[in-house]
Design a protein that fits this description.
Blueprint lengths: L3 E5 L4 H12 L3 E6 L10 E4 L5 H7 L7 E4 L8 H19 L7 E5 L3 H4 L27 H16 L2 E7 L2 E2 L9 H15 L9 H5 L5 E2 H13 L6 E5 L7 H11 L21 H12 L12 H8 L10 H6 L7 H14 L6
Parallel strand pairs: 1-2, 1-4, 2-3, 4-5, 5-6, 6-9, 7-8
Length: about 350
């Protein structure tokens, strides 16, 4: 059967990796984004406002997708607003494409805040015992991920398609202008340290430095999305998605430093978040971009200090169980150091960091 994908958020870190994967597999791919960054070559690009039902109805008219992947969200000032806006986005997309009857499966990407709670109540509730498992369910706290799921479940029942929910940990992957991208943020931070001679200080908590953790390569997540949307074992299921290895930042941090030819500083006595230390980063990055002929001189298009601070500043262990996917037949694995180094090499090829 012909597979025709519609990717919501096609220029983001997840959506672009998924588009590259599906195009390489011979799929037809259409993508919806805000149009602020370039899409993957080969994607039929559609610009639309996900918060407007009328705009989506018009933009998606005639799109006969068989699989829909929702990889986008919009950060709001409060979780109440996150719930309202992001739930409506999912509902609007599925109301636009569902009635045509061509959709066989819809995959929704959320994340581990399903277990940890939203940013404004992060880890404040009864956080489940790690490793996180799908059977642990929802927390008793408002969370826009739950609203997105509920809108997905309603549309699936109404229009007769299957669904899957995918919960990655911190995503490492390539995307310009993405608000949640630790890999690129650390590459920019290391480059700034090399340029200024400042120490490469881990910006997170002692718990994250010393404890076990895992992450998700965007390429592995793309393979997981494709698998779940085309296999019976992925129908109407929720899945955690991580690389399959675990590590400690105190082990990986010196390896990242060595890649960039700098020294890893000892863990400071007090947590040292990036956002508070990056006031001069825009000016410094313009200097670096001019000196090395980089393609992007706006550091805010490459780094998201606040999100990396949130991930690395957690006061609790966060690791994830993949047994459910393994038992269902998804056996892929990704080395986490390779995930970072592959990304750094691509950033060099794309002239986004110095070679």
């Amino acid at each position: 059967m012909t597979n025709k994908a519609l990717i919501i958020g096609s220029s983001g870190v997840v959506g672009s990796a998924l588009a590259e994967r599906l195009l390489a597999e011979g799929w037809s791919v259409a993508g919806v984004s805000r149009g602020r960054t370039a899409s993957v070559p080969g994607v039929r690009q559609i610009s639309a406002d996900l918060t407007s039902r009328d705009a989506l109805d018009a933009a998606l008219a005639g799109v006969d997708a068989t699989q829909v992947y929702i990889t986008a969200w919009s950060r709001q000032a409060s979780e109440e607003e996150n719930i309202k806006v992001n739930g409506a986005m999912v509902a609007n997309v599925l109301a636009a494409v569902g009635p045509a009857g061509t959709v066989r499966h819809v995959a929704l990407v959320t994340g581990l805040k399903h277990y940890l709670g939203p940013f404004e109540a992060y880890g404040q509730g009864a956080v489940p015992i790690t490793p996180f498992r799908e059977e642990q369910g929802r927390q008793d706290v408002p969370n826009f991920y739950y609203e997105q799921e509920d809108r997905l479940f309603e549309a699936a029942a109404r229009h007769g398609f299957s669904w899957s929910v995918h919960r990655p940990h911190t995503i490492v992957g390539f995307a310009v202008g993405n608000a949640m991208n630790m890999g690129q943020t650390l590459a920019v931070y290391a480059t700034l340290c090399k340029h200024t001679g400042q120490p490469f200080v881990f910006p997170g908590s002692r718990q994250q430095w010393e404890g076990l953790v895992d992450v998700t390569d965007a390429r592995l997540l793309a393979r997981h999305l494709q698998w779940a949307s085309t296999n019976e074992a992925g129908r109407n299921q929720d899945f955690n998605v991580v690389n399959g290895d675990v590590f400690r930042w105190q082990w990986l941090w010196p390896k990242l430093a060595a890649y960039f030819g700098i020294e890893a500083a000892p863990l400071p006595a007090q947590t040292s978040p990036l956002e508070a230390r990056m006031d001069d980063a825009p000016r410094l990055w313009r200097e670096i971009a001019q000196q090395h002929g980089l393609a992007q001189d706006d550091v805010t298009k490459l780094a998201s200090w606040w999100h990396t601070d949130a991930d690395l500043g957690r006061p609790m262990e966060v690791i994830t169980d993949m047994t459910k996917s393994r038992k269902a037949g998804f056996l892929d694995y990704q080395s986490t150091p390779d995930a970072f180094f592959d990304l750094f090499e691509r950033l060099k090829r794309e002239k986004l960091i110095p070679a």
